[in-house]
Write a structure and sequence with these properties.
The protein folds into two domains: 180 residues, P-loop containing nucleotide triphosphate hydrolases (Rossmann fold); 110 residues, GMP Synthetase, Chain A, domain 3. It is 34% helix and 23% strand. It has nine helices and twelve strands. The longest helix is centred in the C-terminal third of the chain and has 18 residues. Magnesium ion binds next to helix 1.
């Protein structure tokens, strides 16, 4: 569809969701678009790449940018993740600053401002996880907002939401629709993201690794898709989608944990990830997983580029493959 073929009353707004790790950015996006597109876990730093997710309400298209949570680290992987959050906020109409009501407000905003001081466009504050706070009253929330405003002076207004039970979410979407400007939709044909199925396949494998593996291991692990063959119909026979992926770990001992006894752990990760990928592609998937030791992959320029994390201005000098 050509942009000029669109309905003359179409409206559009793009907003970046920003905040500390675990603030609930990806969960809120999934709640709004109506299914589990973005990966979520109770561990911080789950999201590594920024990407867009689109949905429409009447003739208004709302494009939300999911971003990695802002955190302090000198590790190249983490520097690039913070860079992704900045990149995600670049050129948007609005920033939604997500603040977890169960954590210290000041701590969250101060950390966040270290990366974003002076770089933010228009911002609204979204207090999240309201279902976890008992007897929340308006005066308390107003006080918290004033606390935020003392650090983030341009914050225009606030919302209180729960992505778990949907409380307050309609007020946010209502105001997003009101703030949208007349203009063409970026995703007129119903696509939901600027990332492809190959990207989400790698995310769904990593998500299961995050859920299954303990301690620091998920942070020392990356997923690279080696081959992705779409399902093809030949005559009456539809072939399965075939995916080969490598799970990279830092040390040989980690490889043994990810593989598990007689391959039990990798099999479990693969089965769960395959089900989610099948739901995404709408057909059968043959998923082949390998675990590879790639020492210090999180400092390796080649690997970081491969997983969609380009260098930032704060990047270290990093290893290059000769
Ligand atoms: N009870 C409750 N839990 C929530 C809510 N929103 C998010 N969570 C939980 O909070 C944890 C973190 O959620 P995510 O959506 O992954 O947070 P995030 O901000 O995307 O985190 P990063 O990707 O690490 O930056 C998960 O365990 C979610 O289930 C909420 O409204 N209520
Ligand atoms: Mg996330």
């Amino acid at each position: 569809m050509l942009l000029t073929d669109q309905h003359p009353h179409n409206k559009h707004i793009m907003a970046a969701l920003l905040g500390r790790p675990n603030a609930g950015k990806s969960t809120l996006i999934n709640h709004l678009i109506g299914y589990d597109l973005s990966i979520v876990s109770h561990k911080p730093q789950t999201t590594r790449n920024q990407f867009q997710c689109a949905f429409t309400i009447d003739k208004t298209e709302i494009v939300l940018v999911d971003t990695p949570g802002i955190h302090s680290s000198t590790l190249e992987l983490n520097i690039r993740m913070n860079g992704q959050a900045q990149f995600g906020a670049d050129g948007v109409d609005l920033n939604l600053i997500l603040i977890d009501l169960t954590e210290s407000i000041e701590g969250q905003v101060k950390h966040f401002l270290k990366e974003f001081e002076g770089k933010l466009a228009r911002s609204w504050v979204v207090f999240t996880k309201s279902d976890l706070v008992k007897n929340l009253n308006e005066a308390e929330i107003e006080e918290k907002f004033q606390q935020v405003k003392s650090l983030l002076v341009d914050a225009e207004k606030y919302f209180v939401v729960s992505a778990k039970n949907g409380d307050g979410v309609h007020l946010l979407t209502g105001d997003l629709c009101d703030a949208a400007e007349p203009g063409p939709h970026l995703y007129p044909d119903g696509a939901v993201s600027n990332k492809n199925q190959r990207f989400f396949a790698s995310e769904y494998i990593r998500e299961q690794a995050f859920h299954t593996l303990q301690d620091e291991l998920p942070y020392e692990l990356a997923v690279v898709i080696d081959e992705f063959f779409d399902a093809k119909t030949k005559g009456e026979k539809t072939e399965n989608t075939k995916i080969s992926a490598s799970i990279l770990v830092n040390r040989p001992s980690q490889r043994a944990i990810v593989v598990g006894k007689k391959g039990a752990v990798i099999k479990d990760i693969g089965t769960k990830a395959r089900k989610k990928i099948e739901a995404m592609v709408g057909g059968k998937v043959y998923l082949n997983l390998h675990v590879k030791v790639s020492p210090k992959w999180f400092k390796n320029n080649f690997v970081l580029d491969e997983i969609g994390l380009p260098r930032t201005q704060k990047s270290h000098r990093v290893w290059r493959k000769k």
